[in-house]
Every structure is written in C-alpha cells, then in structure tokens.
Structures
1.
Amino acid sequence: MQKGGVIMDVMNAEQAKIAEAAGATAVMALERVPSDIRAAGGVARMADPTIVEEVMKVVSIPVMAKARIGHYVEAKVLESLGVDYLDESEVLTPADEVFHIDKRDFTVPFVCGAKDLGEALRRISEGASMIRTKGEPGTGNIVEAVRHMRLINSQIRKVKNMSKDELYAEAKNLGVAYDLLLEVHENGKLPVVNFAAGGVATPADAALMMHLGADGVFVGSGIFKSDSPEKFARAIVEATTHFTDYKLIAEVSKNLGTPMKGIEISKLTAAERMSDRGW
Amino acid sequence: MKVGVLALQGAVAEHIRSIESAGAEGVVVKHPEQLDELEGLIIPGGESTTIGKLMRKYGFIEAIRYFAEKGKPIFGTCAGLIVMAKEIEGGEEAHLELMNIRVSRNAFGRQRESFETDLDVKGLEKPLRAVFIRAPLITEVGKDVEVLSTYKDEIVTARQGHLLVSSFHPELTDDYSLHGYFLEMIKTNKAVVN
C-alpha cells in the first residue's frame, strides 16, 4: 500500500539494498539519476531491463520504473518484466508531444507528475492511480515542488467551496472531466494519493512537503548524490514519518555531510526545464 | 472508546476514517507513550520492512508487546499482519512475534497481481469486499488461532484471542463491518477485564 514514506531512486542492486535497509517503501530503478541525466544531455530513455531485473531480484519492497511520456511500448516492456509501478516521467525525454499513455490499458498501476489540479485530473482520467508533483528533478531545489503542491491544494480548496453549478465552467477551465471534478468537490481531495517529487535534498525538505500535505515523498538524486547515502536515506525516512517533530529532524540532520549540490532554477533555460514536459 | 492507528507509514488516514465510521474515536499514534490511553490498536498496511524498522527505532516493539500482554486487542492488516506474526518465511526477522502464525510475504505476487473479491468472514453477517495489494498469506496457524476466512483455500483472516489479522485491506472500502467486529472484541474484552 503506497501511502506515507519515502520512495528512492536507485541505479543498481547495491543501492536498492541500501534504500530498503534504510526503510524506503519502494525504489525507482533507473539507469541514471536525474542530475546525471541533466549532466549527460541527449535523449533519456527507459532503463536497461537488466538493471530493473537486478533491482527486483534483491529487494522485497515494490520496484518502480520510468517510461517516457507517451511511450506505450516502453511501458508495456516494463510491465512485462513485472515491475510494481510505472512512472510516466518528464525526467525522460517525451516520446509524444500530444498524447500521454492510455494507462487504463495496463494492469500495473501508474504514477504521473502534475503541476496543477487540471494536469492531475487529466492523468487520473487516463488511468493514473498515483500523482506526484513535478518539482524540477536533479536540481536539489525544492521550490518547484512547493509551488505545485501549494497550487494543487489551493485549487482543491477552491473547487470544494464552489457551488455545483459553478463546477461545469470550472471543468472547462481546467480541461477536466466534470464527474472527476465533482468527486474532488465532494471529498475535498484528489481521488488518489499525491506524493512530493523533484528537488527533495534534505530531511527538512521531505518534512516540508509532508507539512504542505503530501502523502509521501520521492527522493531522486538527493540520496545517492550526497556524501553519505545511508545516513541521508535513514534521516529522510525518519523526517518524513515525524514531520512535525522538529527536535527529531534536528537530530537526524546532524553531521549528514554535504547534500547534493543544488541548481538555482532561474538559471535553467526553458529547454533545460523538465517540469514543463507533459500537459 | 479510543482506538489507535500506528502511524509510522501506510494507510493511516483510511483506518482512522473506518474506525470512526464504525463508532469509535481514532487516534494517530506516533509515540509509544500514546498507547497508555488506548483500548485497542490497529497496525495498518504499508511496507512491513519500513514499519518494522521504525518500530524498533522508536521503541514500539516492547511497548506493543506490553500492550498485548495487558490483554488489549490489536488488529493487523496486510503489513500489520506480517509484523504481528511469530514467523516470516524467507528468513526475514520476525517483529512483534505476537501471533502463532507463519506468514509468506507478497504471497499473491507483485503489484499487478493485486485484486478485489467478496469474502465470507466468520462472525460477519454479509460478505466483505476485500482489497488485496501485494498481500501476505498465513501459511500455518498454531495454538489458539482460529481461521475466520479463506480465499481459494488460503488463510486470509485469523484471530487468536484478542489479536485479529487480515491479509487484505479492510480500510479501503466503505464496508466497516470488520472494524465493527474489532470494536466488539474491545467491548467484550473490557467486560472481561472489568
């Protein structure tokens, strides 16, 4: 059951074991973490199936893998390997500039990124069973994830307070199905879990996202690009569970060594920004 | 009546909602000291390795064992079932070792083998909608354990006195009857203690 906890990016079996031992609730098997994808440039594609299988062999927690936006076949290939979740991810180079994958055509559940309520509900319509923010991956900068989480939650509050007849126009504004919007109006929350992702680099970052209402946290480059991955991984897991216990967060943050080097997002060119991929 | 939900990781909010719909007060439990004020405890589904690790880290193992020794009812679902078992197949270290059961993790397979079904459970009037997600199975039951339901001849719900476990997620549907059953266990238990 994916709710609460920390999902960690790993590039091999050894890292997957470190993540599991630290208390990760799932791992994302990748060929390169986002900061390396950023550094390498070029087209980023799904990982080599060998890496995914290797990771699946060594851990008992769920294993996730990324397919390119709109790349039906990459997703089907990963599903055939038996991965537990698929991430249709903007971290990889999109394969389709118009259409996302029809996720209802799969038995494996999907997680998708969203910057706002419209994007989240469109992904859910397509069959996504988990949403995450699209913080700027590989930057170690939390600002975009914060923006997306705040925006989605404020839009949900707005929809909740609308009268029913206002929902029709709002469905049009957001570009979403009316029935789904009605569900948000009635329940005051998304029909699926919403995790934080992109730019989480420290235990305090993870706790901040939980404070803002995230159901859990993805940590990409933050762990295995830090000085001491094991300590960072454990500290982020604890800070996520006890996100209001500031003394504990202070304690686990002591002597962690250097976190990953961050990137100021305003220094990125439009072409370098990954959160703008997907629609 | 106050019933706690162990909130280290997993489906906490859903259990709180279910227990409140069944007529008790739900308490989010993050510290062992909180157990003192509770009459029952739910250990939710999530990842048993994560929950087990954090239980050790924060002193929950001893505290929950003491809670059980005092005769207070505990209900473990999915990962909660795993952490309550005396024995886990595949060499994984057992956690609370409260129930005389042997369990197999992810027995139904990976995420894509997750499913829902209507289940007859002994003690419930109507079949229960049960959601199985990477669910564990009880492969052996020992002394004092009563089997409450099976799915395709495999044990998926069991009770040992004041301890209750299910390998599925009863908190993900609007059917609160198994939570109601657990509340009845607490009430009966109180009557005995008093």
2.
Amino acid sequence: MGELKHYTFNFGPQHPAAHGVLRLVVEVEGETVISIDPHIGLLHRATEKLMESKPYNHSIGYMDRLDYVSILPNEHAYVMAIEKLLKIKVPKRAQYIRVMFDEISRILNHLLVLGSTSLDMGALTPWFYTFREREQLMDCYEAVSGARMHANYYRPGGVLRDLPNTMPQYESYAWRSPAETASLNANRQGSLLDYIESFTEQFPERCDEYETLLTENRIWKQRSVGISAIDAQRAIALGFTGPMLRSTGYARDLRVDEPYAVYDELSFNIALGKTGDCYDRYLVRMAEMRESNRIIKQCINWLRKHPGQVIADAPKVVPPSRLSGKENMEEMIHQFKLFTEGYCLPEGEVYTCVEQPKGEFGVYLVSDGANKPYRVKIRAAGYPHLSALEALCKGHMISDVVVILASMDIVFGEIDR
Amino acid sequence: MQKPTKIALRNYLKSRPGIQLTENIDMPVIVCPVEDLIALMTWLYQNDQVQANCCVDICVVDHLHYGLDEWVGVDATSTGFERARDALSKRDIHEKPGRYEVVYHLLSTSMNQRYRIKVKLDEPSDSVPSVTKIWPNANWYEREAFDLFGIRFSGHPGLRRILTDYGFVGYPMRKDFPLEGQVEMRYDAKLERCLYEPVQVQNRVSVPKVIRQDDQRHTMSEV
C-alpha cells in the first residue's frame, strides 16, 4: 500500500457556492476536511479609509455597499452613530419607517439565503420562488428611494423623504396585453403602505410554500441535520451573533437586549433553534421571516394613524426644503454650507450596533471635531462567522463545506469592506 | 452598568493605578498600559460579576492627524478656495507618543454589558500580547490590525496579512499612507503578466477637513 497523504486544493476564488469571491485552501484526507484556510480580502475596497476622506453624509452610500443584501440596517447603524454624537432626536414616524424597512431588509436577506442555500444543495425551485417575493420588496425600496438595492435612504435625523402615496405602475406594450398589465397593477392602486400590506397578507402563505418544499424534504434534511452542530458557549466564544447564535438556543437579539429605534414598542418573538446545526439555522431564519412580517404589519398600522415629520428639525445637519431654500436667505446659507462642507461632529467616540439580518452590525466612530470621521471601524457580522469556518468544517465532508458556508450567510461586501 | 459589576471593577482597579476607568456616552472605557493588558482581559473574562465572554471587535486608531485640519480659512479669505486648502497628506507631520491605540470592544452576553478597552502604543513595533487564548475569534481581528496598521501581536498563532493583496507592501490604514495608494497594477499584454507601477493620480482634496470651534450644535433645536 502506498503512502497516505493529505491532499490540498483550492475552493474558489471564483466558485458559485463561495457566495462572492472567497478562496478556501482546503486540506483533505480522502473526502474528510482536515483544515481550511479562508483567504479573504478579494473584495477589499478600503471603505473605512475612503470614509475618512469624506464628509459624513457622503458615506451613507458606502454602507449600502457593505452588506449589499441587507442594505438599510447597515445605514441604520451608521446614522445612529452620528445621531448619538450629535444628540439629535429622531421623529417617531422616521423611526417607524426605519424599523419597517429594516424588517423588509431582513425578509429580503433571508429570502436570498434560503434561495441560494437550496441552490447550493441542488434544489432550483425555491430560488425562483424567493426571487418572486424579493422582486416585490425591491419595488418597495424603489418606490421610497428610487433605487432597487442601494437605497441611500436613511439620514442623520430621520429618513430622506416620506412614504409615497402612489406606487409606480406597469405599462402595456406589444407583448403585454392590457388585461395582463391590469392584473400586475392590481395591488399597486393605493399608496406604498397599501402595497406593503398586500404583501404582508400573502407572505405567510408563501412561507408555507417554501416550507412544503424544504422543511420535511428528505434530501434537505440529510444534507443539513447535524452538520456543524455547535453549542451556545462555543458559539459566543467564536463571536457568533444573529441567527448563527440563536440557532444554538441562546436568546440574544439586539432588538430586545439593547433596543434601538422603536423595537421596544413592538411585539415579536425571538426565533430559537436547539442544536445549532445547518438545519436549525434554516428554521430560525424561516421563523424570523414570519416574525418580521408581523413587525411590518404593526408598523403599517402605526404609520397609517400617525402622519408627521420624517426628519428632525435640525437645520445645521438636515438640509432645508428646496422651496424654503429659494425664499429664505438663512436656509440658503444652510443649504450651501451643508452641501459644500457638511457638518462637524463634537469630539468623541461612539459604538452603535443594530441587529442586522446576519447578526450584530456595529459602527465604531471616532470624531476629532471635524466634518469627516476621524476613524470608522465597521464591525461586520459575517467576519467572525467566516473566521470560524475551520472550526465548523473540521471532520465534515467536502460537500458539507458548501452547505456550512451557505448556512452562515456570507456576504463579502461586509467581510472584506 | 449594574451595581455589583461596578463595585467589582472599582475594587479591581483600586490596586492598579495605571489602569483608568471612565464612562463614555455608550459604554465604560478602560485605558490600560500594554503590560497589564492580559491580566486585565483575563480578569474581565473570568470574573463572575463581569463575564466578558465575547470579543465583539478589535480595531486600531492612528492618532497622527488627530485634531489637525486642512482649511486655512480666515487667512485665505482674499485668496480663494484653491489656496485655502492645505492637504494633510502633503504636510510633514511629526509623530507624537501614543500614536497608535488598539481598541477592544468586549461584551458580556449574560450581563448585557459592553466594555471598551484601549491600549496606547508609541511605536507600532511595540508588540501587544494577543488575546486569542481568551477569545478565539480575536485571531482574525488581530490579523486585520496587523495588516492595516502593522501592529504586532505577540503570541498570535499565525500573524499574516488578511485583507490586502498577496505581496502588498505598506500599512494602508495608517494616516500617512496615501488614499490613492502607492502602486497601481495593470495587465501588460505584451509581457503577459501583471505590472506594478507608481500611481499616476494626484491627490486632490475636494472637501477639506474642517474643525469648527464655534459650536453650532448648541443652537440646534430638538424635536
């Protein structure tokens, strides 16, 4: 018999199951993984360095491009840091809008994980289903901000603009009959809130649809039950947050433990798993989507009853309306100063974090009193998750690496920054 | 911070005058000399009243340009915008002691309490003891701090670059590293390989860094 040797191979950097550009150097014995060395940084864009060279508001757009699947919660953490240092109070309506869009983002994110995880395991159908729903939610993003993904919608002090009263409509053309157009526009006749409400009514049914396809599916369970099971203590030591930690049965959710915005006024449950394996992570995400749906419904009810301001009355930070800028000298000066120089933050430092769909997303902001951040450190939720890849994969098969990676919900925009 | 935690912390710090505890707007901040770091971290991790069981984040702050602005302002009123800017990147700025600061963010999930620990370094070559033995996930954070700032962590299991390119030279997040970098890469079709050349782009300050002393924030109305 010949000498037995470990075999080392590359996984990625261009691999559809790597969820971006990730290179794994995998050492195997037979088909069993001995060690994994993730090489990250292939999407490194020096976001933190760029932010140091720009006024505060210019960097909100960078937040969208960090975790480009859950866009608005990233912005939320960043604007919260600025608000905390400036001591601005955000109007309640703006906070409800933020929470509503944070939860829409959570559904968007979890739908993508669900679709791509099943795709990685060879099930194509859920991908098409989840993208059908994602399309509707992206329309909400578009209606409110003008962009389907990189919304750039939150501002220090509130949100850019109030929710629109009309929804954009589909138009007929040569290949789309008027009857077809009318059916596409059926739920777009009212305001954005009506549209979101119609979504929340049908969404639990859609969740049932996914569950019919996957939850009791034999292949799905064979691929995920018992894979990379982990206990809560170890998960905390490895820095896990979000669904990765909750799947172990440990109830930690920043929305409850360190409530921000208006989460303390809303009722929802924390979804928990038991074993912390890939299957539990999937179940936790499914349950979280249903909870998010509930939160969105509560936000809609509140927002319908409480019209009002969506951005704080803070002229040194918030630009004046276009009209008043043309009629009032003071306002024009504010407008000019804000768009050429920005605003200065008091000297100090602050760490703010939000429960982003992937876990704790934090922004550590250091200001030396200037109009640009002195240092911004972005605490990406996926970073500690990926660093624990070796710990989770050791002893599993090569094919499990793909499943574990998918269940971690990795996005390289935020890991590489 | 809960009361027993506060008492435990105060008692611990009483016998250690080098370590300072202050209360920031978001969490308590502990400034610690390098020599005491491991002892402090181990205590925070093990003490029943603190239980800092999770390392949330480790990062570095480079204080080279702290408090310096790029705006000549009043003196340049008659000369116009172009001459009023004084780019920090073009100035010769002397290093001060305590230039680098390693910042640890810790969390106790059981107490629901966060802590910020800071360690000041004069030279990047002053190595900081690694905390990977206490929190295994500190591994990548320390690698990142080494990669971007060149801070050495003694006792780290494999301190190598993580975010930058293979073969990268320099520490890009330091304040004296130019924003546009030092080299640019292109593929040369004739030579059939990648070439690294000095950057062509000029540094340009479009929005100068301004520090305003006339505190506008106090006039801000709150909703």
3.
Amino acid sequence: MILGTRTRHILAREPAAGAGVGFLFVFAFFTLAAPDTFLTHASLSSILSSQAVPGIAAISITLLMISGEFDLSVGSILAVSSLVFLSSTVGGTPILLAALLGIVTGCGLGLINGLLLVWTRIPSFIVTLGTMLVFRAIPLTAVSGGRIVRYADFSREDPTIAVPGLVVLLGVSALTVIVLWIALPVLRHREGATRVSAGLAALASLVVVYILLRSLDTHGLSPFARVEFNVFHILNGRADLGLPGTNYRTSIVWWLGLTGVFAFILLHTRYGNAVFATGGNSEAARVQGIDVDRVRIKSFVLSGGLAALAGIIQVARLKSVDPLRGQGLELEIIASVVIGGTLLSGGFGSVAGSAIGTALTGMLRTGLVLISVPSNIFRGAIGAIMIGAVVINTYVRKDR
Amino acid sequence: MTPLIELEGIGQRFGHITALSDIDLQLHAGEVVALLGDNGAGKSTLVKILSGAHRPTSGRILFEGRPVRLDTPQDARALGIETLYQDLALIPRMSIARNFHLGRELTRLVGPVRVLDHARMSAQASQALADIGIHVRNTDEPVVSLSGGERQSIAIGRAVHFGSKVLILDEPTSALSIGETRKVLGYIRSARENRMCVIFITHNLHHVFQVADRLVVLSQGRKVAEHHKDEVTEEQVADLIMSEHQELDGEGRHRHTEQSRSAGSPNKGRQPTG
C-alpha cells in the first residue's frame, strides 16, 4: 500500500479527488515545460473557452453514466438541436423561442433514447449507438451536399432581445437571491465536492449579475428604458475583462453554473439520490421503491436537453451549423468524464470531477501544442491518461 | 378474526417454468410464521410476491380482508409491509443514511426547492439503528466499507424501523455472529409483541423453534405442510423438508432444478451496462 489508509479513504469517497490531483500534475508540468506561453491569459482563456461546450455536454454524460447508462448519441443530439435552433432563428422565429425549440428537440431525442431503452431492454450502449447514426442522418439530409447553414447569410446583425430595465433588475436580483439562498446553506455542508460546486454556483451567479449590470450601465440604467441584449453575446460572447489578446467567453460562466446546478441536483434532491441508486444497484433500488425506469427516462431527457443547450451555446460562437457538428465529441467527452472519476459501471461519480476532467483534456490539447508536440498525439495522450486514471481509481477504491 | 394477509391460489410462472402454484396461506397479526423448504422450493418467490417485487400470475391477495394488488414495491410499503431481502437490497457505494432512507428520503424546503435533509436522515438512521442495538461509527460511511454482518444489520434495522404491519425476513441471520443472531431473534419477538406479523425464512430449524408460532413448508412451489410449532418436533420438520424432495424423484427432480434457477434470483430489472 503506497498511500496511507486515510488518504486512500478520502480519495475513494470523493470521485473528483483523483482528477484534481491529475489536473494539478498536468498543470504543473506544462507550467514548467512551457513557462512563457502556458501560464498566460491567452492560453488559459482559450483552454476554458474551448472546453465550455464539451464541458456542458459532459454534465449530460455524467448524469447518465452515474445512472448506469451510456449515451453515444450526444454529439448527434447536439447537431440536430443546433440545426433546429439556427434554422428557426434565420427563418424568423424569435430568438428565445428558437432556443426553446432547440432544447425541446434535445429533450425529445433524449426521450426517444430513454423509451427505447426501457421498452426494449437493449443495453443503452447499443440503443444510443443506433440513435447516434439515426439522429446524425437528420442534419446530413436536411443540410445536403457539404453545405453549412450560416447565420451571416441571413442577417448582418446578431439577434437581440429588448427587455425593460426594471424587469432585468428584478430578474437578476431574484436569480441571485435564489442561487445564494440555496448555495449559502450548502456551503456549510460537510461534503467537500458539494461545497465546491455551491461556491462555483454562487460565483457564477455573481458573474452573471456583473455582466448584466455592466450592459445595463451602458444603457444609462433607466428602469423604464428597454435594454437590448445581444443573445449570442450572453450565450457565448467574448467577455471584455480589459485584457487584450485574451478570449474569456461567457460560455465559461454557463459551464460552471450548470456544473454547480447539476452537482446540487445529484447530491441534494430525491431525483439525484435515485440516479445514484439506480446506477449502483438497480434491482435493490427497485425493491426499495424507486421507479428505476422513470429515473432512466428522466435522465435521458435531461441529458438531451443539456446536449441541446451545449449546441446552442456553440452556435452562438460559431454562428453556423454544419451537418457533422459534434461528431466524435461523444468519445472525447466519455474519456473526460472517466478521467473525472465517474465509474463506467454506474453508481459513482460527480459533475465536478467531469468539469476537472474536461479542463484537463483541454489543457492537454493546448499544452501539447505549446511544447511543440505534434497535435496528432493529442488523442493518444488522452487515451493513455484515461487508462491511467482508471487504473489509479481502481487501486484507490479497492474497498470491496 | 380476519387474517392480516390471506393468499388465495397464488401461482407464479416465469415463461413456461412454474415457480409457485396454488398457494393458500393465512397470516395473522401478532404471529411469527416460519417459511421453510429446500433451495428452490419457492420461498423467495413467495416473499417477492408479498413485497410487491413480483406480480403473481394467478390468485389473489387479501389484506385486512380487502383484496389488494401488490404490483410494485411501493404498493407493499404503503400497506406497512417491509422486507429484508436475502441479497439485502443495499446500494454499495451509497452511505448508510442514504441506504436507510432509500425511496423515502426526508426532505426540507431550502428557498424554493425541496432538498434532501441529510442531517435529519443521518440522525434518524443512527437513532433507529441504535434503538435495536446496532451502533455504527458514521452513517455517512458507504455500505461497501462495512463487513457482511454489519451490512445485514443495516438492512434488518431498516426493515424493522419502517415495517408497521408485516415484516418479511428472508434469511436474516446468514451472515451474523451468535450474539447478533440472538439480537435478531429478539427483534422478531418484540415485533410479535407489537402485533406485527413476521414472516421468517431460514434454513436453521433451531432458530425456527425458538421464535416461530407456525411453520409452513414449501416444496417444488407447493405448500406441503403447515403446523403449529407444538405439533411437531425439529426432526419431523427436517424430515418433512427432505422427504418431500425424495418422493418426487425422476420428473420431480427435473422440475426442481428448473425452479431453483428461476426462484433463486429472478432478476426482472436490467443490469447496468458498461
């Protein structure tokens, strides 16, 4: 036994602990290996901004993996929802309605996955392998011949929503109060990961408040004047932090905020408890009164909605959808989630771990370029790290 | 007196395999009934029907004189029927407190949302376990870190705490020390004093004669004997369980092996993949 029992105990209890340690190692490595380029706002901002979308999709994979299921169709769901969002926007649908349509599409496709799983009793790996191909056919047929749907082809201006200043102020205050109301008692809770995510949620809400108040400020802060918000900017715009040459985007706030919200859902609601129970031992959960099929369907619907949201946030930055959007994303995300400490067999894991795993993946992608390693090695490195992470986690959790 | 539970012609088939046929049984409040039989006799299947985990293919169940459907475990729990399953039905990586309250978590309102009340669940779990003599170091500890006997104690504690009318114990003492076993037999007696009906499955006839009022013997999915404890001796009961087995040689043995396959752990739910 290399580690002390106590250390091993903490590592075994906290899914994100291993990923956190690995993250620090990789971080330290690149800081030393590329001292002038890695630890700069330019590279850190690009890492975080590029990982926000996979990070949000990783929440959806984590949720399902904890419940004992797999979702290979997440990239396809992201593509279909992105397409629904963008094409209804350019077709004249009000932007918020278009976003809602996109999310409903994602939930609907997730529902199909869930119902197929529960009705046929086919393993979700097979079900979602099938739906990955089926859902992918939608953008491939709708957007034929290598075309790309571009927002710029239809409009010069980004979509905006105009809201009375008073409503904005009230909405923001209500949101902050709610988040802090929930987060502050949780901050005092024993479980470390929970505390971290509650802190992140509180922080994210404060950042949202700050961004909104600043954009209000530029409009003179009159409570009755209508304030225009650039929707793409709110979803995934470049945040002006007064640091030239950096690319911190608002999507990072969405990523962290959603991570906090789902960490909370998983650890502090009956549904979250049922997700862990279903993944941990579905027959035991069933005889203890949990409707495991309902939990599975609910998780797939939530997961589809999250994938859609990730897609919409990505569209807000790229302003286009190509039919192959999100292809190959699922495997990279599964790797990040596994690196983050979530068990492939279900019943154990955390969204905070997945956020760390996703950040680690992004750090590796950028860091390898910075130390002049051919970028083709990136996937190989991810694979090696994933296997290493699983080996370490298995060693640490030798508690049966 | 109306029986608490009355089974009429209960049968259970899994495909073309008959696990139980034509079971008639009356169970009363304030009595301990031992359910006996060789492996694969249908004891666990019968228990799963009573706890709502299996839906019987024929027959009907009366509870306090009214016909009821026990289609889901939730239905059984709502009637005050609590079960200790042979495999304990614990989630290994979840904490003792979370396992204790699984499916009936305590919540409180935090702001606008309903959240789990961890503090109250922990306190209630350790209190309830302490009440029946089980002392756990820390209810936040995952069940996977406990010994077999400790796990069994947690599962028994849960069933005893939540059961209000019927307590079904499927081999409750298999992993327990002599002292712990004595305690469990003690709970069974006190449950009887509290006018509960206890259904007790075991292979240990010695335990049966210590606590049971009545003995029901199953063989090959049928009820083959039903006696008051005072009517028979331990040897006679052992012979009953064994002899039924030998009489049905040939075809009977064939049927028996099929039943043990189906009645052992009929896993209706899906296994987690991956």
4.
Amino acid sequence: MQDFYREMIIERYKSPHHKGTLDPNDFSFEDDNPSCGDHIRIDVRLDEDNRVVEALFSGEGCAISLASADLLLESIIGKKVDEVKAISKQDIIDMLGIELGPVRVKCALLSLKVLKAGAYGLGEDISP
Amino acid sequence: MSSEIDIPALDIEGIKRDFPILGRELGSDVTLVYLDSAATSQKPEAVIGAMDEYYRRHNANIHRGIHTLAEEATALYEGARVKVAAFINASQPEQIIFTRNATEAINLVAQSWGRTNLEAGDRILLTGMEHHSNLVPWQMLAAERNLELDFIPVTPEGLLDLGTYSELLERGPKLVTFTHMSNVLGTINPAKEIIQLAHKAGAITLVDGAQAVPHIPVDVTDLGADFYVFSAHKMCGPSGIGVLYGRRDLLEAMPPYMGGGDMIKSVTLRSFRPNDLPHKFEAGTPAIAEAVGFGAAVDYLSGLGMEAIAEHEQRLITYALERLSEIPGLKVFGPEAAQKGGVASFVMEEAHPHDVAQILDFDGVAVRAGHHCAQPLHDQYNIPATTRASFYLYNTPEDVDRLVKGIYRVKEIFG
C-alpha cells in the first residue's frame, strides 16, 4: 500500500518538470474530472515534422493526476503526433508503476484524455 | 437543547455492535472507521433483518391484492408511512409521499407544484450552500419557465447571511428553499426563523432535510414547513426510498407527477381520475421492502432518541474540531461546533483531498473527497475540493483519533 505513493510520484507532484503554459503553441486543450473537480490544461509545441518539441501542463489535481501528467509529457518529447495518439491507458499505468482502482484510474488518465483530445483536434484542423 | 441530565448518554459500543459492517476488517489488522455517513449511513441489523424477513415471509405487491401476503405487505408498507409521519411529527400519514430519495422529492415539487404555480418573471430564493439536488431542479424549471433565481449568500464563517435574506424577500419570491443542514459545512440553519420570514413575505417553503432528519430532532409541524424532503439511506435505512412531506392543501391541489398504476381512481382510454393522497404521487410498484426497512430504521432511531443522538454528535464534532485545529496547515470549513452537525470538511496545505482520502483509506478510515455535490459552495471558498469526515451515532472519539493519526501520516508521506 505504501508503494502507492512511491517517492517518484510524490517528487513529480511536488516538483513537476513539465508544468506551465506555452504561448504560442500548436495545440492546447483543457478538461475536468467531474467527479473531483480536477482540471488539467496541456499546451504542446511541434516542429515542422509534427514532432513534439515542448509540452507543458497546468491546472489542479491530486498527486496521481499531476504526476501522471508530468510523466506523460516527458514521454512525448520527440514523438510524432500519430505516436501520441497511440498512447494507451496501459502505458500510463506502466509509467506510474502502481495498481489503480476504478476511481483513481480516472485521476491517472485525465492528462491522457486532455492530450489526445488536443492531438485529435489538431488532426481535424489539418484535414481538408 | 435540553440539559445533559435529561438525555441519557448512548451506549456507543452497543450501538456499534448493531451494525454488522462496522466489525469488518479491511486488511490484516485494519478495522473500518466509517466517517462517510453524510454520503450514506450504515445499516443496523434491525433494518437488514426487517427487509430480509419481508422477502422471506411477506413479499407481495401492495394495495389491490386480496390474498394474505398482499394484505400483510400492504399493512407493512402503510405501517412504515405511519411510523415516518410520527417520526417527523407530520399531522397525517397521507402527507408522507414515498419517493426514491430527497432528490426525487424536490423534482416532484419542482415539476408538479412549480409548473402549476410559477410563471415567467416569478422568483425562487435559494441559498449558496445547496446540494446540487436542491439547485439543478430549480435551474431546469427556471430555464423552462423563465424564472429568476436569487441566492441567500453564505458568510465566510459558513452561515447564511440572514440580513441579506430579509432584503431578498422584498423581491417577492414565490418559493424559498434551503437546506436544513449543509452537507459540506455542517451548518444547521435556523429553519423555523427562515420559514416564518418567508411566510410573512407570502412565499411557500421547501426544506431539504436530507442531512438534518438523520441527526437532529425534526418536527415539521413546529417548523411550519410547506414541503420537507429527506432520504432513508442517510438515516440507517435502505437506499431507494425517500420522503416528500407536504402541507395537505398544497398536495391536494397539485397535479400528479408521474402517471401509471396506483396513482389513479379510474381510467378510460382517453382520461383518468387521480387517486387520493398519498397514492396520487406514488405511480407504479413502490420500494416496498425498502419502506419496511425505513420503518425499522425509524423505530431504531426513535428507540435511542434523536435528542441523545444529536447530543452525542455534538460532543463528537466538538472533539473533532478541537483535534483538527491542532494540525498545522489544515483548515476546516464551516462554523464552530455549536452551530453545526457532525461534518468536518477540510483542506491540507500538503496534499490534495483525493490523496488525503486515499492515505486515510490505507488505515481503514473512510472519508469522502471532492466537491460533495456542492460545487458553487466550493467555488465561493475558491477550492476545487475538500476532504470530508462525517460522523453518526456509531462513531466514537477513538474514530476521531484514528482520523487525526491518518492525517499525520499524510503529512509524513507528503511532507
């Protein structure tokens, strides 16, 4: 049980590496977790090849939701937008390295939901 | 409140044994400390047993059946109504309408009384501390009928601003609706005074008693409430059944809310005549076993005495606020103990409410984290969420100690 709040998660929560906003950005999206009022916004900057150069998050949330946002954004630097779209729920759970119940899994997945919504919105903008 | 001499102290250890779930172990050597009764209470053996007995011996559909079981089931169902009426001192059992819960009771009034009596430009006066259940139904009606909503503000201490209330009454609201006890702040509002002022201003009143009826003595006749709603599951009863109490003349004049069986006197292909109270508002087969369980819950609470329960919770919240105030970086919302029931909602500097609740759960302490269906109130305090510990008759000072110990563990992990 103690493993749940692994040092890495607490560290990321207290001193995230990817917190902030980007202006200008190539896409930005935000959303809430209605069950707890958590709110996350993610801003992403891309290069000419559609690869992520920089990604920052802002908002409020629990240790699980903010640590997973930080880990997620770290993992997408250098990735193409299509690869970002392919990130799965399991990828997030593997990054956190803990078992999550049905309630807390929503905390962990909020940032992925926001990031994907932003990435797909970008796709629609580009398509004719 | 009466002096302590009048009220025998409750035998809490005995009460704990009445609730089978409270003996549950959650892991090796981790016993449950249940501090989430504002969400739903646990159920005593008497309630579980009554429902079990009903299904084993009496189960049948109620009212028109002629056979023995149907008569027994009807007597049990209607008997529960009589018990509930007596519990809140309603003058007649027909004034007790069984609904699914307090939320449905409010929706019933909004849709039936509201649609009949309110028209464009009419005002409804609410408060800033309502549960979403006593806010959204009025927002829906206001959108449909072009009504205006006003709100009695909540002071920083967590009390209703009664000075502003008097001013808002001058706008001539048709309905004043408020929570008897806040599910977040624990504030017990001066219901009788609020109702009297509303009546002087010519308004009808609806009181959300979901948090009050389980915890303090409530006398709807003395309060003078026009409508009063509550849920069984927060007062040791089962989920799936709640109450709309209404003034008889108002209920008589209201059109049915849902159509179906049991709510009619007679039906032709193109018309129906609605049934008498309370059946007019109870379309379809109701929650019969739940009513039986509800009746048993009311008997259980009456047996212990609501005065004694309120007194016990008052002692607990006083102790809890004292202990919580000693913790650095922790802030409790709501008024001082004397003005509230057994609810302590708090935030910690170090950790988000979800994390606090999670770590407390490791120690078997069950609390709730979130906005507790009162988002506007949290917005007012500029916080997304709180951790809420809520107490009931089966909680002890040792439970408070376990809570405090768990909070120090949060500080250790996040420190």
